[in-house]
Amino acid sequence: AVVSTQSTGNLKWRHKLLLPTIASLPILMVYYVTYGNTTIVLPLFPHLFRVPFIDLGVFYYVYMGMLAVFCTNAINILAGVNGVECGQSIVIAVSILLNSLLNLNTECWSDHMFCLYLVCPFIGVSFAVLYYNWYPSKVFVGDTFCYFAGMTFAVLGILGHFSKTMILFFIPQIFNFILSVPQLFRMLPCPRHRLPRLHAEEDKLVMSTVRFKDSDLNILGRICLVILPPLGLVKVTRNDDEYITISNLTILNVILRAVGDTHERTLTVYLLIIQVLCSCVAFLIRYQLVHLFYDD
Known about the structure:
With about 300 residues, the protein is mainly alpha-helical. The strands form three sheets. A three-stranded antiparallel sheet has the order 5-7-6, with no helix packed on it. Strands 1-2 form a two-stranded antiparallel ribbon. Strands 3-4 form a two-stranded antiparallel ribbon. The chain has 13 helices and seven strands. It has helices spanning about 1-10, 15-25, 25-35, 45, 60-75, 85-100, 110-135, 140-160, 165-170, 170-185, 220-225, 250-260, 265-285, and strands at about 40, 55, 195-200, 205, 210-215, 235-240, 245.
């Protein structure tokens, strides 16, 4: 429903948040019927108070619904460059594949076998799409693939019962979303398209920008422009006493700010390297550092 509506209409962001929420209801119903467990294990520290578990009840379903919304939109807002959408989806899917293979000998083997049934065909399809979507692209995936991939990951995380591990595989997407919050929630002006801009003469991508009046900023926007520039997350240019130009708040612009103007294919490679490194960090957290906070 989300894909078909987005393909035929001009959806606003509030609709993109609402529709995945509705679309996640069948998944939550299947979870309720087949599993229904809403109890989570707390870290070691609360065990000092003899509270090793807590039953979240309906709030656990709220959390899973929010996970579905996040997955479907996280890839969609980190897009617009040839190969980025498919590439990041393949890295996440391969990470899920490896995670499932590592758990086939555990008591949850059936859940991970279910994941293998879904993620293997997804990887095959995504590689086929990437072949035509890689620079120079012959196929543009648009929102259709982004929502398809995101909802696939949501289904795997919820029905495969490893939603917390799934979140670890989305570290770049989480960073991109948090960085985008000031623009998405209108603390700072947000153009419709924030993807990097092509410098045709040099055939390179440069940071996209947005220009606005200094007087139009609210207090939250001014706070953002105090905090973000020293962190190297945004470039601010004061054209005169009235107007300000800032780079759009996306991880793609952060990469371009760090390495300079670069070719579109190279930018995609940089992002995929970051995605792979973050997946390695996710596995380190899941299978090594986790023992510092949870009992075996």
